[in-house]
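Question thread 4412

I'm putting together a teaching handout and wanted feedback from people who do this every day. The idea is simple: show students a protein as raw sequence, then show them the C-alpha cells that encode its fold, then repeat with a second protein so they can compare. Below is the first pair exactly as I plan to print it.
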Amino acid sequence: MNSLQANGISIGYDDRGPADGLPVVLVHGHPFNRSMWDLQADALTRAGHRVITADLRGYGTSEVVPGTVPLSAFAQDTAAVMDRLGVRRAVIGGLSMGGQITMEFHRLFPERVRALILADTSPAAETQEGKAFRNAMADRLLAEGLDGYADEVIDKMVAPYNVTGVPEVARHVLAMMRATSPQGAAAALRGRAERPDYRASLAAAQVPALVVVGADDTYTPVAEARALHALLPDATLAILEGAAHMPNLERPADFNAAVLEFLGRVAR
C-alpha cells in the first residue's frame, strides 16, 4: 500500500505504468475509492500510459478529515500528489463527484491540465434543494453509516440489469460504499453542496475533453452529457450503452476503448 503526505494529511495512492508515459490522473467518485479505476489503470498502462489514482481525503486509505471538505481541497490534494510524484502536467479525469473535482482542478490549475475526461458528471452549481438534500444526507450518514444508503442506491449507481447480470460489479460497488467513512462522506457532501458553477471555466477551456456517460444514467442523464459536450470548445462525446452511472465498471471494455482512442489523439 502506497501513501504520501500532502497538505498535512496521509493520502493513499497508486502510480502505475512507465515513468515516461503520458500521465493520466483519475479521480474517483462518491462514496468510492481508487479501486474503482483498477480496470482502467490496467488497460491504460498496457498501452504505455502512466496512471495515477489516489484516494480522496476521507475515502479509502486516505486520512479522514471531518466537518466540511470543499471540492477545492480535493483539487489541491490532487495537485499536491502530482507534485510529490514529479508530474507537472497531466490528463485529468473523474467520474461524478470526481468529475466535478476535475472541473475544480481545471478552474484552479488550468496550466497543469493537458486534457480532460469527464464521466457521468455535471458542471452546474448545486440548487437550493440540492444543498438541503446533501446536508440532510450528510446528517443521515453520520447517524446511520453507509450500509442502508448503499442498499438504496446500488441500482442507480449500477443499472438494475447489471446488478443481476454482472453481480461482481455490484459487489465491488457495494463494498466500496460500505467501507467508506461516514465522517469522510459527510464532509464531502457538505463541501460538494457549495460547489461553484463550472460552465464559464469549461467554456474557456483550451484543452481537448472527452465526455462519457452511461446511456441509462439517471443521476446525470445523457441530456446533461450532451449539454456538457456542447459547452466545451474541443470535446468528444461517448454514450455507452448497457450502463448507468458507473460505465467504467459496467462496460469497462467500451469505456477503456473510448478513453484510449482519446488519449491517442492527446498524445500526438
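The second pair follows. I'd like the answer to focus on this one:
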Amino acid sequence: MRSNLIDRHGVTSADGTPIMVHRVGVGPDVVLVHGGMDSSVSWMPVASSLARRRYRCWLPQRRRADAGEAYSLDREIDDLAAVLGLVDGAACVVGHSYGALIALRALLRTPALPIATAVLYEPPLTAGGPIVGDLLAPIAAAVAGGDHAAALLMYLRDVAGLTPEATQRRTRNAWLQSQVPALLSEVEAADRLVWTPETYAAIAVPTMLLLGERSAPHPNRDSTLALAQTLPAGRVVRMRRHGHLAHRRDPSYVAGLIRSHLADHAHPEATGAA
C-alpha cells in the first residue's frame, strides 16, 4: 500500500455500534482520537505527515455522544479497543481534548489493551472538582430549548475561555452549533469523573502530555500539569507558539512531536521507523 493511500475500515464495538476508521500509511501503528466538536478529518494532515515517515495511522470517527442514555465514556473506550484490534502488536494512541480523556482512561485497561505509548493533548480532567459544574445548567437549558447558538456561545465564553471576538466568530458556525448536544453529553461524562492521583499512578505506559502555551485559561491546563506529576512515565511538552488546536494550525509540527516521542520509546514494531 502506498504511504499516501487512504482507505476505510469498519469495526464493531462491544455493544454492536459500528465504528468507521480511516487508515493511511504503512509501518508502526498510531491511533489518533479526535476531540469534541471535531472529527477525524481534522487529524488527517497529521496522519499524512506521519505516513510520509512510514507510520500507519488509524483515524476512528468517534460515536456520536448525542446518542442519549446509551452514551458513556466506557463505551468510547470499548470503541477504541475495537480499533486497537486492527493493529499489529501494540500501538501509540494519540488523543486530543476529550479524545485525550478517552485515551487516558483506556490506559487504565493496559496491558489488556495493546497500547505501547500515548500522547495526551490537554485532556479535560481537573484535580479541582467538576470542569463545568454550575456553568452546565444554563448550557443544558439552552440545548433543551433548541437554542444551540446560545448554548455554544455560553460554552465558548464561560467554559472554553475564548476571547469575545473568537467566541462570536465560532458561535456563527452552523456545524459547531449542531455539535452542542454531543458536547453536552461529553462534558457531563467528564464532570462525573472523580480525580485522585492514585487513580492514574499505576499507569506505566510512556506518555507525552502536550500543553499549548497559548491555550485559553482552562482546567485542561491544570489537568495536564497534574497528570505529569502523577504518571510515572509522563512528561510535558510545552508548545510555546500554539494553543488548543495545534494539530490544525501546524500539523507537521505536531507530527514531529509524536515521532520524537515514538523514537524515544520505540517498541519492537517501531524499531528504526522514526
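Top answer:
Good format. For the second protein you could add a caption like this: The first helix runs from residue 44 to 52. The two ends are 19 Å apart (CA to CA).
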